[in-house]
Design a protein that fits this description.
Radius of gyration: 22 Å
Number of helices: 7
Shape: globular
Helix content: 55-70%
Largest sheet: 2 strands, antiparallel
Strand order of the largest sheet: 1-2
Number of strands: 2
């Protein structure tokens, strides 16, 4: 995705550190829902780090399916009835789940926009396969050159979608930075609530960093 190794390594480090944090939170949380949510975030960060290095492209369709399923899971939590206390029953919690669903969908769109996707039914022909196909045509075996044998697809380069998602995640980063600053101010004023505020402080910082990374990565896809 990037031609500057320093940027790629920096983003990879940020994504892996964020993923490790979510994985650690999944292990510490006593609630099953929080364990699932944090695990999904860890998986998303790992897949995005792999995407930076163009790894596991053959499983891109499976990655998109997992992320789309994760997005749907967060949306279900956001629209769940208040009686389901283990889901996003409160107002701020619902907004948080909607944003996390958007994040998962954005990651899925980013993977889809970075290159062709193998459907798993067949493979795009390599140079050797193309040569063999040409030889078979000269002998009259046209079935081997059937265009339907190619099973790759891509949503293609979409600057408009990239611009929209860049704006969305930039706004999200600004909002989380604002919340981070407000939390820090409150923390210095009320020392008795330092522990819970520290947890909120770390959460807002992590969300702001994640949104900034998403915005930056989509910004590189606008041209």
């Amino acid at each position: 995705m990037f031609n500057i190794p320093a940027i790629t390594w920096t983003l990879t480090a940020v994504l892996l550190l964020s993923g490790s944090h979510h994985l650690q939170q999944a292990g510490r949380s006593p609630r099953r829902t929080e364990q699932i949510n944090n695990s999904l975030h860890a998986v998303m960060h790992l897949l995005m780090a792999a995407m930076l290095w163009h790894l596991a492209r053959s499983t891109a369709l499976a990655q998109i399916t997992v992320l789309a399923g994760a997005a749907l899971w967060f949306v279900i939590q956001a629209v769940a009835l208040p009686e389901f206390k283990f889901l996003c029953a409160e107002g701020p919690g619902r907004l948080k789940c909607i944003y996390h669903g958007l994040t998962m969908a954005g990651a899925a769109a980013m993977i889809a926009m970075t290159g062709p996707i193998s459907t798993g039914v067949g493979r795009a022909p390599t140079d050797a396969m193309a040569t063999m196909a040409g030889m078979s045509m000269s002998h009259g075996y046209h079935a081997m050159t059937d265009p339907a044998k190619t099973r790759t697809t891509s949503i293609g380069h979409s600057p408009n979608l990239a611009i929209l998602l860049t704006a969305v995640f930039t706004a999200a980063a600004i909002i989380f930075i604002t919340l981070l600053l407000r939390t820090r101010t409150t923390q210095t004023t009320h020392h008795n609530t330092a522990a819970p505020k520290l947890s909120k402080h770390a959460g807002h910082a992590l969300e702001a960093l994640g949104a900034a990374v998403m915005a930056f990565m989509f910004a590189t896809m606008m041209a």
